[in-house]
Write a structure and sequence with these properties.
single chain; alpha+beta; Lipocalin; nine-stranded antiparallel β-sheet; four-stranded antiparallel β-sheet; about 20% helix; globular
Length: about 375
């Protein structure tokens, strides 16, 4: 009888082990819907195993074109699934149910945190993923395009943060003031723009536009089109001047740069995006691109690139922001963090992670003086 009891117990352990193995298998296709600003976006995540046995995943936003976006990390700890999608500054964390048929979790991107329930899809319930369009050919370098179609409307007053996005031949902004549009179009920091009424900082707009002509515009052509739009829709006129302003000079530290050259298309668009407050992902970008993001989104003064570094780079910068940073992005004060595990402040992080320094100084810089501008309340 004692031997039989032992066999029963052993069998029970074997069954529990088999069930645990089944629960921990999350490979397959998962589907769910994210609600963003009243719009439902169907989302598919395909999880599989890499050659080394680790997990990998690809995300598809079906209602946004369905282009595959590879995850940078996938982990399973007990019933907790974590998926990091660094390419878009996003992450998903969910909890598996007992049968591993669904996950209840949250998708985060920048300051946004959205509930996302995922179900394991079958052959009958899986959503069809659209075939992505072929890559666009570059627009002729000597082309002088304009926006053929452009819609401007007031932003949701409760929206947080702001953003600029290029998707194919579509240019869009979210929750951007006229000041933000001007500084983006003319590569300036807000302190380099003077004159004009106070609403150019306060009123926020969403912009959606597409260019005339053929091909994929380069960065300079996108900015040129935005300049034309500002003159046409906001009747913006101005003149240039020079002023001595407090600036940060971006220089290489005494031990040299730690940056890795990008393997991306040297003629392609750079990608600089936040994976959260204090996490800046930089892909295929030069030092001028990096300086502009630091000055327009993080700091309160111009940043002048004096590194002498040429080419494009890929890197991620992680730091703990202080209360004065990200004011231009509309984010609130950062939440308290555990000082024993938190990354360093911005200036220390740049030196330790990138081999770069920000030095406070004064320098003559270009200033844009607004002569005339008119308010736009709708398209």
């Amino acid at each position: 009888m004692k031997k039989l009891t032992l066999w029963v117990i052993a069998l029970a352990f074997l069954c529990a082990g088999a069930l645990l193995a089944q629960v921990r298998d999350i490979t397959g296709t998962w589907r769910g819907t994210i609600n963003v600003g009243g719009r439902s976006l169907r989302t598919v995540i395909k999880i599989s195993k890499a050659d080394d046995g680790s997990l990998k995943a690809v995300l598809y936003s079906i209602d946004q074109g369905g282009q595959p976006i590879g995850a940078s990390a996938v982990t399973l700890d007990g019933s907790t699934v974590k998926i990091t999608i660094a390419a878009v500054g996003g992450a998903y964390e969910g909890n598996l149910n007992a049968g591993a048929t669904s996950m209840e979790g949250t998708f985060t991107q920048g300051p946004a945190s959205l509930p996302l329930h995922l179900d394991r899809a079958t052959e009958d319930t899986a959503w069809s993923i659209p075939t992505p369009p072929p890559p666009l050919k570059p627009m002729a370098a000597d082309a002088d395009p304009s926006f053929e179609v452009a819609t401007i409307k007031p932003s949701d007053p409760d929206a947080q943060g702001r953003g600029f996005r290029v998707k194919g031949r579509q240019f869009s902004t979210i929750n951007t003031s006229l000041m933000a549009l001007i500084t983006f179009a003319y590569d300036l920091q807000p302190k380099q723009v003077t004159g004009g009424p106070d609403w150019i900082d306060k009123d926020k707009y969403d912009l959606l536009a597409e260019p005339d002509g053929d091909g994929q515009p380069n960065e300079k052509q996108w900015r040129t089109m935005l300049k034309k739009l500002l003159a046409d829709r906001f009747k913006l006129t101005f003149h240039h001047d020079k002023a001595d302003l407090s600036v940060y000079a971006l220089v290489v530290g005494k031990n040299g740069s730690k940056l890795a050259k990008s393997q991306g298309d040297p003629n392609g668009l750079p990608a600089l995006f936040f994976g959260g407050v204090g996490i800046l992902n930089v892909r295929n970008a030069n030092m001028t691109d990096f300086s502009q993001v630091v000055e327009t989104s993080i700091l309160d003064r111009p940043v002048v690139d004096q590194t002498g570094l040429v080419g494009r780079f890929d890197f991620t910068l992680k730091w703990t922001p202080d209360e004065a940073q990200f004011a231009a992005m509309g984010f609130g004060a950062p939440s308290p963090v555990d000082s024993t595990t938190a990354p360093p402040d911005l200036f220390t992080a740049m030196q330790e992670q990138l081999g770069l320094k920000l030095e406070s100084t004064k320098a003559p810089v270009d200033v844009l003086v607004i002569d005339h501008v008119e308010k736009r309340s709708a398209n």
